[in-house]
Structures are given as C-alpha cells and as structure tokens.
Design goal:
alpha/beta, Rossmann fold, seven-stranded parallel beta sheet, binds NADP nicotinamide-adenine-dinucleotide phosphate
Length: about 240
Amino acid sequence: MNYYFITGASKGIGKALTEALLKNEDNYVFGISRNVTIKHERYHHQHLDLSDITALRNNLHKVFLPLDNPGKIVLVNNAGVLGEIGYIGSQTTDNFEFVFDVNVIGPALLMNTFLSAYLEQTCPKIILNISSGAGQRPIDGWSAYCSSKAALDMLSLTCQKEQELLKTGVKVFSLAPGVVDTTMQKQIREGAASQFSQLEQFVALKENNALQEPEAVGERIAGFIKNASNYPNVLLRIDEV
Ligand SMILES: NC(=O)c1ccc[n+]([C@@H]2O[C@H](COP(=O)([O-])OP(=O)(O)OC[C@H]3O[C@@H](n4cnc5c(N)ncnc54)[C@H](OP(=O)(O)O)[C@@H]3O)[C@@H](O)[C@H]2O)c1
C-alpha cells in the first residue's frame, strides 16, 4: 500500500488530490484538516488546526503512525491560507503569525516529524509542498502570503539538499499549482481595490473562465507524484509536471 498524508484534504486542491489518489486501490490517504468531507474505506481523517502550533506540537506523534511494509510514503503540505488582504501598516498584528503558522511552521514541523518517523523505511519517500507563484513575486496586499510561500520554497530547497547529502533518496518538491477555482480565489476577489492593485485581474480570471478546476489540478498532481523520481528540480510549476 502507498500511504499519503495530505493537509487541507477537506476542500479545494487537497480534496481533489485525495479523491484522485483514492481511485487507485493501492493508495491509502490520511487527511489532515479542521473539517472532514471525505468518507472512504481507504481514507482516515486526522483533525488538526495548523494555526494552533501548541496543539500541533502535542499531536505530531499521532500523525505519522507505524506503517506495515509501505510501497511509498508521501507527505503533501497542501493546506494554506491567504490571510488578510491589506498593506503592511494596516494589518492586524495577528495576521503574520496566523499565516506563517499555517503556511510555514506547520509544514516544517510535519516535514521534521515525517522524516524522523520513517527514517528506517527504505521505500520511496516524497515531500510535496504546495507553494505559489506568489512566493517568487511581490503582490501588494499579500505580504504575509507571499513571504510565507517564499519561506516554504526555501524550506523545500534546504531539505532536498540535506537529503541528498545524507543520500536518503527522499525527494522534496515545492509546486506552484497555478490559479485554481477554490475558496481561496473567492477570498482574493473579495479584497478591497485600495489594498490590492491586481483585484480586477483576479476578478477577470473568474469571469473569463481562466481558472483551473480543482479536479483537473488534483489529477495532475496525482500523476506527478507517481513519476516524481523523474523530476530533478525542487521548485516546479503546474505546467511543468
Ligand atoms: N487556489 C489557487 O488559485 C492557489 C494558487 C496558488 C497556490 N495555492 C495553494 O494551494 C493550496 C490549497 O489551496 P486551495 O486553493 O485549495 O485552498 P482552499 O480551497 O481554501 O482549501 C484550503 C485547505 O486548507 C485547509 N486549512 C486551512 N486552514 C487550516 C488550518 N488552520 N488547519 C488545517 N487545515 C487548514 C482547509 O481545511 P479546513 O478548513 O477543513 O481546515 C482546506 O482543506 C494552498 O497552499 C494555497 O496557498 C492555491
């Protein structure tokens, strides 16, 4: 059996990826999020709020359970939040901590525990972090989001370098999924133009049906994971996989 740990499996890209993976009877998914929306004989839900780092820290040992003779083990850090849309100087103080907890600290703790929990497992192991093009270019109003995704990219690059030095064979990726029709895009379209100069462009993406469907993106990511050993680069965009 191949085992997948997927954060944010309750909706959007994470749910679509989970459903795509469950079509293969050799796959078992552990979903991690605050809400449960999937019922399947090969799906197990773990209720965790990644913005509550104390609770996450106390429950990490329950996430990565011993696995019997796995074919492949995969951690997908997909859960992510945009946070408040607003310029630095007009955000609530809590926003930066909230966004970094969910988008960086949570994934880092999960990566750390995943690697130590399955150190002795010799099967292929993959860490896939779902990043964003916003981690590589500034978007006004999204400072916490952009900088958190830049941090996630560097976390992935550093982790891959370490695994290569250790010769573990573990593959680490940071994948930007492109623009996808999920609740995150809805939140983007609800931003105030005074705090987000690209508002009209994002509204137009929806009006012109230019957003990808989550199901198509989920299938594509599932296909990528299957062939992940063929990809030498850590930082990838959806159109490259
Ligand atoms: N949609 C896009 O256009 C786009 C573009 C670039 C990158 N991305 C990235 O793609 C990933 C998925 O985004 P999406 O568009 O699918 O978003 P979404 O539809 O808003 O779904 C977000 C998922 O993350 C989970 N989540 C949010 N806060 C959480 C928390 N505190 N603890 C645990 N889980 C939490 C949610 O589950 P619960 O609410 O049940 O906890 C949900 O399953 C994110 O990392 C995002 O940054 C998306």
